[in-house]
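Human: Respectfully, please carefully check these tokens:
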Amino acid sequence: MNIRRVNVDELDTLMSWRMEVLHEVFADSENVDWKALEAANREYYVQEITRGGHIACLYDNEIGCGGLCSMMKCHHQKIHQVDVLT
């Protein structure tokens, strides 16, 4: 298996895969604004791949794709648990 990292210079290939996935995800949805959805995803990939917040990958001559998203967790904030009584 050959896995390679995709940079923004291959954005069109990445977006082709992403839109295929989104068409499956929203297959039963009505009134999907595909142009807006594609533009938002394209903007996300350009921003996050460039800054290192997303690592996009293609597998074996483009037979699959995947990605890793990183995010920073704020450790200084407390999260309060709410108990629900039944």
Q: What stands out?
A: The helical segments are 11-25, 34-51.
